[in-house]
Amino acid sequence: MNDSFRNPSLAVDAICLRRDLGEVLLIRRGLPPWKGKLAFPGGFVDYGENPETAALRELLEETGVEGWGPRVYAVKGRPERDPRKHVVSIFYLVQVDEESVPEAGDDAAEAEWMKLDSIVSGDVAGDHFEVIEQLRE
Question: Which CATH number is 9-136's, of 3.40.720.10, 3.90.79.10, 3.40.630.30, 3.30.160.390?
């Protein structure tokens, strides 16, 4: 196989909801880019890893919350969406125990349930606010 092709990197993000409370599970990024901004728990898919598995792994690593049943919700892939390089991200709706108490881990500085209607665009990383707006509909 020829690995000389320039291809985008693949990332995943986990969307966990407590619909009855109108809340979503978010992290506050501990590292650049977007250090200090809110984001869905997520990260890069490892080589040889199924993206669904990666979404559940990243959720657990960044929040301590175990998820199941990932379903594709959105895909974002504008070449300029990430300042590091061209990154395509698959956003998955992931089921979790709604009583879960998140604890920040890995590269997340914080992890918490937040009211969907209280999140403002200036506090959110990259294009994740576009997904939050979709969830509000």
Answer: 3.90.79.10
